Predict the structure.
Amino acid sequence: MRAHPKRHRMTIEHRPTLRLILGDQLNPLHSWFDAPQTDVVYVLMEVRSETDYVRHHAQKVFGIFAAMRHLAAQLKAQGHRVRYVAIDDPSNRQSITANLDALIAHYGAAAVQYQAPDEWRLDQALREWTAHCGVTVKAVDSEHFFTERDEAAQWFASKKQWLMENFYRQQRKKHHILMTPNGQPEGGQWNFDANNRKPWPGTPAVPTDTRPTHDHSTLWQCIQNAGVQTMGAPQAHAFRWPVNRSEALQQLDHFIGYALPHFGDYQDAMSKRSWHLFHSLLSFALNTKMIHPREVVQRTEQAWRAGHAPLHAAEGFIRQILGWREYVRGVYWARMPGYTEVNHLAHQRPLPEWFWTGHTRMACMAQAIGQSLEHAYAHHIQRLMVIGNFALLAGLDPQALHQWYLGIYIDAFEWVEAPNTLGMSQWADGGQLATKPYVSSAAYLQRMSDHCASCAYQPKLRVGPEACPFNALYWNFFKQHQHALQDNHRLGMVYHQLNKMPAHDLVQLQSQASSHLENLNTL
Ligand code: FAD
């Protein structure tokens, strides 16, 4: 990538434009690619600044690199000019902006274009670089989301609370999704969540995992040789996540055909017999933009209209994508910078060591963390009501937890991970995103999962060596944060119970909780 003297003498007409494609911008249908242009060079790069800003799961690192390599190959095959800077390329300066400087010199480029990044960190880096890079720079839309970055902020500007449900209804109307011809929600209701809270008894059978298997051992070796530090099981010889659009579409077909009909019923269920149940496993493909949320939503609505899936399943699934996904993005852009530092409840405790091994006697936590390390995946209710629930009850440092979530999941990109972790799960933003902290005692976990039956702890016990830690930690949490939480109208019942609890019981629970907190590593 050293400057080439001849290139400097190029006339302005021959100086190409570089178009940067980030690792989560792998949309082959972007209008950039409508027709090959000889004066455009597409640039993709594998850099240490992206592998190292947090410790990522091994599968996440090579999954993204493999998908980038696929897109590069596809673009080349379509006749586009592509410059791919691999992690072990000797000319790689290991940062996006440093590589751009070198490539501008190398190609004698007159201009750089990039698709607006979804992460504030990269958006900022590219803006700062633009100010002094010496060429014309233009940011274009990534053509991925239903909403603009600031659309949620505008929508909520005059509203007291940022209620996802209100935003979601507005999006349903705006995009005519699950609406009757006269503008009413299909089925006469906006939300069928009450139907979506069943435990899974073992039937219907969970669809088989038909995702293709890839051998990425060579790429993994190359990443290791470069010294990139990762966590989790690489499974490099048998990688199962989609790495291109056609594989992502196959996964969508499979989900619609076999899992969607039961998605609603078992959306909140947890089981040691299945790590994904009826979830779509589409988040990696969506967040790297291999598929568009609109096509996922449309396929889901069509399946319902064709009588293939019940309305509560289709609505529940669409709400996750059209509602939650767009909404958390809006919250992220409205609150950055600064959102990743929030810590409303001033929690400071370090994460227990078993967050990196899964070796805990709590069966639900062992399953949720164990499968996260194995597959770089846990489904929503495991992230929220098992791992996040425990972390909040135990007062774990929300920033350390945010780094952990950002690293471990194959789908973790800060715009979606941070509001979910810090806002929805840890209430670290003081309730902008969640109207009350999402916590529960063992009763909920027992109702929604089959973990408690084989756990070393007893869900019904609150004190003693066999008592499930979630119980004492639950009451201790509400007592500890009484000042901050007791006026929350959604917690009236909890504080009613706490206030009428005999003093002796409360003391016992608090002492049990202290013992758990002092011995987190051995739980
Ligand atoms: P499904 O259950 O099949 O849902 C379909 C799609 O809906 C998902 O692919 C996703 O795109 C979208 N979706 C569902 N819930 C949410 C949500 N709360 N916010 C945004 N989109 C949603 N999702 C990520 O994509 N990246 C993350 O880093 C991430 N971190 C999370 C951290 C915590 C603490 C929590 C509670 C949730 C997090 N989520 C994150 C949301 C959700 O857990 C995942 O999107 C989901 O588990 C991905 O699996 P799936 O594709 O099988 O999802």
